[in-house]
Design goal:
301 residues; two-stranded antiparallel ribbon; seven-stranded mixed sheet; alpha/beta
């Protein structure tokens, strides 16, 4: 029975990817308009996630008026809908159709060259955003040494779609987040590793550090990985340009202590705050970012 269900999931996933491939025959501005409509629909029907977004924005932007936070909430769902279109394009192998103009901070080339000239690995700390899958597929195609880390999805169809789509767009699978030893080998061999560090994986894997002044369970392994591998550590960020004409990329070098996990988490979260502020509607606010609370604090959700 399990094998039959797996076959069904694979068949459905391939159908979705085929539809994504066909959709990329449309002009880019049409696809963005379609994505915006999908986002508006999600805003109306996805009430549970809308409440999560509202809670996250209330915690992170208490200084905004109610009207401004509501506008940001709606903008986020529109960005989320466009991100779904971008993701299907990336997973169907047609991501370049949507790229348009690509703006790179000069720091990107400087840091890549610095790591290469020193014979160091490069640990790219990423964060979840509505553009992540599209940009990730392009990075993996451009940088052959780049390896990404991932986690399984709880919904089988979503997990199958993500696995097939990423292999199709990148040409290779990634490392599961439990494969830390394999990740260290990549860095020790002067490779590049992309590791998203902004998911709440519970107290066992986390320390608490402020993110927008909210005590946040933050993954604790980045400094340890940097110390063991001597890799250069940078926060990688990207956002969609406001006029829809392309994307902007940047790297921010991070000085991690490698001995104080809390201080490292503070450094990482502060850098992520700065990156989020560039385009706050595009951060992945539908995640329960503050799910794990310090002892004695009630759930915010």
């Amino acid at each position: 029975m399990g094998g039959r269900l797996t076959g069904v999931y694979v068949g459905l996933a391939r159908l979705v990817l085929a539809l994504g491939w066909l959709g990329c025959a449309l002009p880019r501005h049409w696809l963005y308009a379609l994505g915006g409509c999908i986002g508006s629909l999600l805003y109306r029907v996805w009430t549970r996630r809308r409440q999560i977004v509202r809670t996250n924005l209330g915690l992170c932007f208490p200084g905004l008026s109610d009207a401004a936070r509501l506008a940001l909430e709606r903008q986020h769902f529109r960005a989320l809908g466009i991100g779904l279109v971008e993701t299907l394009a990336a997973w169907s192998g047609q991501g370049r159709h949507l790229l348009g103009r690509m703006e790179w901070d000069e720091s990107v080339r400087v840091q890549l060259e610095a790591a290469r000239s020193r014979g160091q690995g490069l640990l790219l700390l990423g964060m979840h955003s509505t553009v992540m899958e599209l940009i990730g597929s392009i990075m993996l195609q451009q940088w052959p040494k780049l390896i990404y880390m991932y986690r399984h999805q709880s919904q089988p169809l979503a997990d199958t779609l993500m696995r097939l789509g990423r292999v199709r767009s990148a040409g290779r699978p990634g490392l599961h987040r439990s494969q830390l030893r394999a990740a260290l080998r990549v860095l020790k061999q002067n490779g590049m590793l992309w590791y998203a560090v902004d998911q709440d994986l519970g107290p066992r894997h986390s320390v608490y550090a402020p993110f927008f002044n909210v005590p946040t369970a933050t993954l604790r392994y980045a400094g340890r990985m940097a110390r063991c591998s001597r890799a250069l550590v940078c926060l990688f960020w990207c956002y969609r340009l406001a006029d829809g004409s392309g994307y902007r990329f940047g790297l921010e070098p991070l000085e991690l202590s490698a001995t104080d996990e809390v201080q490292d988490a503070r450094c990482i979260n502060a850098a992520m705050e700065r990156a989020v502020q560039a385009a706050p509607e595009q951060y992945f606010w539908v995640h329960r970012r503050f799910k794990t609370r310090p002892a004695g604090q009630a759930s915010v959700y």
